[in-house]
Write a structure and sequence with these properties.
Length: about 240
């Protein structure tokens, strides 16, 4: 199981938000590239880079940051504001190894299928973020009428093979990852699911790794608050 240290970008800084709320932010660095180097030096092979400015529809320079991070010889999974083909192409051109689409996948599954066809199923993942049992979009501010499983099955039929799953109620609060729903989503849809939101202990990581249905885990607050080290997270993911 892969571990993805998260680097969330807002106003050029590395932040963590509680349940996606920009009013509940913690700032950890004003140098995203240095943060990326820090995780790379500790064994990261992938980084999860989030343009929160893009998510909230604000102008930003995060493509330039993506380009600098991608030059560090690390795979970058990039998301935030990727709502049309031009934005996806810009992220690929800047060096992203994988793109994560959320709002686009919910509003226009056919466009999501086109993106998967154009860039590849290994390159485009879909975000299935749950709030009150429904998939949330637009920076988690709007709710769709579909459950993660319903949308996941539809997107799987359209060619998707990878998904991110976040239980929004647990994100950024070290409340513990929703293992049951994460595993159920993987088993119900056949998607390779990356867990996100709430991972707070090495036990969370070990349980996900042993589930057999989870492909990866994104870790943010626990690493930034030094609840455990990245080295220990990587060991737990390997079953060591």
């Amino acid at each position: 199981m892969l571990i993805y240290p998260a680097i969330d970008l807002l106003d050029g800084k590395v932040v963590r938000l509680r349940q996606g709320d920009p009013r509940q932010r913690s700032v950890f660095s004003d140098d995203p590239v240095a943060t990326a180097r820090h995780w790379l030096d500790r064994g990261a092979e992938w980084l999860h880079l989030v343009s929160l400015d893009g998510t909230f529809g604000a102008a930003n320079r995060n493509m330039a940051i993506l380009e600098k991070v991608a030059q560090l010889d690390v795979h970058v999974q990039f998301t935030g504001g990727l709502r049309d083909m031009a934005a996806l192409q810009s992220a690929i051109d800047a060096g992203a190894s994988r793109l994560v689409i959320g709002t686009m996948a919910v509003r226009d599954p056919a466009a999501a299928a086109e993106a998967i066809g154009r860039f590849g199923a290994e390159t485009v993942a879909v975000a299935l973020d749950a709030k009150e049992g429904k998939v949330a979009t637009h920076g988690w501010s709007e709710l769709s009428q579909q459950t993660p499983v319903e949308l996941g099955k539809r997107l799987r039929e359209l060619g998707a093979t990878q998904a991110l799953y976040t239980d929004i109620s647990r994100d950024g609060g070290l409340a513990g990852v929703n293992i049951a729903d994460t595993v159920a989503l993987a088993q119900s849809t056949g998607l390779r699911v990356i867990a996100s939101g709430g991972i707070s202990t090495l036990s969370d990581i070990s349980k996900l790794a042993r589930s057999g249905g989870v492909a990866g885990a994104i870790i943010g607050m626990a690493l930034y608050q030094k609840t455990f080290s990245l080295e220990d997270a990587l060991s737990a993911a390997r079953g060591a």
